[in-house]
Amino acid sequence: MSKILIIYTGGTVGMIYDEKTKALRPIGFNEIRNNLPELYRMGIDFYVYAFNPPIDSSDMQPEVWVELAGIIEDRYERYDGFVILHGSDTMSFTASALSFMLENLSKPVILTGSQLPIGKIRTDAKENIITAMEIAATRLNGHVMIPEVCIYFDFSLFRGNRSKKYNAEKFEAFYSMNYPPLAEAGIDIKYKRQFVLPHPVKPLVVHKHLDDNVTVLKIFPGITRKAVEATLNVPGLKGVVLETFGNGNANTQPWFIESLKKAIDQGVIVVDITQCDGGSVELGKYETSQYLKEIGVISGHDMTFEAAITKLMFVLGQDLPPEDAKRMIEMPLRGELTVND
Ligand code: ASN
């Protein structure tokens, strides 16, 4: 019998409507337990670690990611897999961060949640939790099926650091534009093993240093010099995710190039990702990205924003020499990007 640890952090899945405030607020795990007697019929030996108080995932912070990584590290040998119940708003950020923090992961860490609270008749919570549990408990030839941090939501299993919440209304809240789902659940759960990361040979290493001296600069036609400079002059800044157009292109006004160059020369790492949901940065393909390469902007390839910003926090937290840090950002560490060029 597989032994699974459910880590309940909060989110809509365990919320109730507060008559006083007229808003949804998170409550304890008992609400979930009472509404999901099926959990006890699954043939899975499960235990629960519940956050007290549970949080709306919009309140997620890097310190909580460190706490989550520590909970998994401390119990790693005792469980076959981990299911994290989490709000959907920042689930992709948490999944991305954990994927970097948990190096050589050989057990499933499946995040799930729901769009409707578990107490609602039409809730999506039950299917999401039950199938996430089943995936976390599945083994093939003695090995776990999914040695990765993933998100299971609305019948699809996504690599966590490739996922994005794209819809606040549909039950299908997530997609993964640049990487296929690792499994799809219908009558059977169909695993796409060719897309799953290989089992690591080395033991788990848990990284708990994240550097939050990072920010994002999302450009648009008409962005002003003062807005760009204010962003790049944040005290202590070490890393910027530059969200650009198309294949990684940006405006070529001299003041814009100068501002970026100044930040890079001062040691700030600037990583280029595209504002498009699908596709990749190709630095140098157009003249409007060639200069970015020349001044030292590095390519985030086809990373999501969620993966890029958490990877920056993770890499900067390693305190590496700048060239090593840049190399690490440009290469795939946990299947979060594909290098095309
Ligand atoms: N605000 C909620 C959260 O992220 C949304 C949800 O879970 N569907 O915690």
TrEMBL record:
One Pfam assignment: Asparaginase
Recorded GO MF terms: asparaginase activity
UniProt keyword annotations, A-Z: Hydrolase
Biological process according to GO: aspartate family amino acid metabolic process
PROSITE patterns cross-referenced by the UniProt entry: ASN_GLN_ASE_1 (PS00144), ASN_GLN_ASE_3 (PS51732)
Domain L-asparaginase N-terminal residue range list: 3-194
Domain Asparaginase/glutaminase C-terminal, residue spans: 213-328
Active site: 12
Gene3D superfamilies named in the record: 3.40.50.40, L-asparaginase, N-terminal domain
EC number: 3.5.1.1
Classification via InterPro entries: AsnA_fam, Asp/glu_Ase-like_sf, Asparaginase/glutaminase-like, Asparaginase/glutaminase_AS1, Asparaginase_C, L-asparaginase_C, L-asparaginase_I, L-asparaginase_N
Family listed: Belongs to the asparaginase 1 family.
Protein name: asparaginase
